[in-house]
Amino acid sequence: RRLPLYFVKLPRPQAFASSAAISFVLFQLPLGSPSDDPNHPDWVPHIFAHRASSSRRSPAALRRYHRASSRMRPEVADAPDAAGAPDAPDAPMDEEEITGVSCETDLSSADIDTLLEENRRLQMENQALKEETKTVYGNVDLKNDSEVEFFTGLPSSGMFWALLHYILELYTPNFSAKIPHWSQLLMVLMKLRLGLLNKDLSSRFGISPGTVSKVFHAWINILSVELSPCILWPKADTVRQRLPKLCKVPILRNLRCIIDCSEIFIERPYTFKARTQTFSSYKHHNMVKFLIAICPSGGICFISKCWGGKVSDLELTRHCGFLDFIQSGDLVMADRGFPIEELLAIRGASLIVPAYTRGKTQLTRQEVEVSRRISSVRIQVEKTIGQLKKFHLLQRIIP
Hints:
Layout: H1 3-9, H2 19-27, H3 54-78, H4 95-102, H5 109-134, H6 145-152, H7 157-170, H8 181-194, H9 198-205, H10 209-227, H11 236-241, E1 255-265, H12 272-278, E2 279-280, E3 285-294, E4 300-303, E5 307-308, H13 313-319, E6 331-333, H14 341-346, E7 350-352, H15 365-389
Parallel strand pairs: 1-6, 6-7
Antiparallel strand pairs: 1-3, 2-3, 3-4, 3-5
């Protein structure tokens, strides 16, 4: 089987006539020794000087043989008749041979071009997304009303943009080179709504904590000046026209507002005088207190400035400026802790509070009915204060 191939490969058949010719044949083997594997390049000699391309084909043929052997090796190992045969040592492969094996693939040049083009496209898309994330502040979708309400407390996205345009018509806030105006407003509202720390906001918006503090103080002053007129004292006729059904009874016909006091905890001041003025023996904490008045329909019509937590409800009501809005004939609803009948009587107004059994064994039927209605109306105050406390900054201890 091998002999005819020898004669085909030899330039002259008479080359086998002597031992020198046989040595010449062995010299023409690529590895210098014959092989019994028909697929091996040394199965027959083929490196002869009379062929110009033989020196280039022999290494390639040897590499093809090694690749074919490496592909066939797992199949031979799994064959039942070769289970007990010892593994032959692998032939050493240089770096060029390993590269040749790894590059063998069924992909065509067109498939490779397609993959390269897709790789370039994905790299460009990745870079574009990286650039886009640099300009996304706060990770809030301002087109989603539910997200806007959660992060800012505003009811809709349209309300956010309307507030921004209203402010920018009157002011030009600083720091626009570091962060756009809409992001500044978003950051301030997120701090108020969620009570986020400056370090958290600096990470979300890509600015330093010091810049966060400066932006917050600048915007909070602007919002205080421009939004304070939104809390207005309505006329008596307007209040009567918008009385809820629960208040449309003779005893509550002249109801003007429901008042209550709320507080915000603060850190303990450094000076002893400030500690004394802000410490509440009832809450056992340093705090500030303010008076809030709610219309029967549920809207806020008055908020006082903050006072030290030590002040009583009577003193706060007397000096906060609330009584300046009271007119003759008004009816003010409050809790039992507001002994302000005399203060209201001076202005021709009256106070209504839930009935209590002081000096009595029990309440009359009429007092029970009035107390039930008063309690139902006073729920409006509790709901409104609860809405205020949803701004988590007011739930924290203010430094």
